[in-house]
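Try this one yourself first.
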């Protein structure tokens, strides 16, 4: 089993190298990139906005309900909401959800092309199939930090609305909490993580779709495996990057 995992990891890195070989013509690639931006980024705005807003609200309410000591200042509700959303919820939690949404879409679309022999047809025509299929996804997901920026804003907005309109805290106190001891590097840290996660979201599902074998049933299995391994990779890299960027 260990040998199989090592083989798969080696094949994954060889795939990454192959993606950047023998580029597809820019006139074709441009249209592919815009299509992937629409499929992966624009189509994800709704679910990201919905989840971010309500999870931000839940974080604020739970923090407020646990501040039972009258000596603890109320502004900590805003402070806790900001820290939770910016450091972990927006970059990591949303990325795990996107591993399900984007990852399943990428694996199933490439896997279906493999099953129906469309990838074989591309290779027969002399096209670098990996560059044609995966490179546009990598470029499209360079806009992924834009999605996470919206998640951060809506998470804090949801926390503010839940705190203020739920009667837990005044608007001035919440805003004071969100500004308290703000460290600008935390934003940079979140976006650095986001770019790494974007690369994982684009390549791991593509790997499982491209190298799958079998029929329609195997496409579903490959989508599940891709989601699991993308989520595991995101959590693992989250730990490593947190230790490197914030631990020192």
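Now uncover the answer:
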């Amino acid at each position: 089993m260990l040998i199989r995992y090592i083989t798969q990891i080696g094949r994954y890195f060889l795939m990454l190298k192959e993606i950047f070989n023998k580029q597809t013509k820019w006139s074709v690639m441009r249209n592919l990139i815009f299509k992937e931006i629409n499929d992966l980024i624009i189509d994800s705005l709704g679910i990201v906005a919905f989840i971010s807003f309500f999870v931000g609200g839940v974080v604020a309410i739970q923090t407020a309900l646990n501040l039972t000591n009258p000596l603890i200042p109320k502004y900590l509700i805003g402070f806790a909401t900001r820290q939770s959303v910016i450091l972990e919820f927006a970059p990591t939690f949303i990325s795990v959800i996107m591993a399900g949404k984007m990852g399943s879409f990428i694996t199933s679309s490439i896997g279906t092309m493999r099953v129906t022999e469309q990838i074989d047809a591309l290779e027969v025509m002399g096209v670098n199939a990996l560059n044609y299929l995966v490179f546009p996804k990598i470029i499209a997901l360079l806009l992924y930090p834009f999605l996470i920026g919206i998640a951060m804003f809506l998470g804090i907005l949801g926390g503010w609305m839940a705190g203020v309109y739920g009667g837990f805290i005044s608007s001035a106190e919440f805003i004071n909490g969100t500004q308290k001891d703000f460290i600008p590097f935390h934003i940079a840290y979140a976006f650095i993580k986001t770019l790494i996660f974007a690369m994982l979201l684009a390549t791991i599902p593509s790997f499982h779709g491209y190298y799958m074998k079998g029929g329609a049933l195997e496409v579903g299995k490959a989508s599940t495996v891709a989601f699991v391994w993308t989520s595991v990779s995101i959590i693992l890299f989250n730990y490593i990057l947190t230790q490197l960027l914030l631990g020192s």
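Discussion: The mean pLDDT is 88. DSSP finds ten helices and no strands in the chain.
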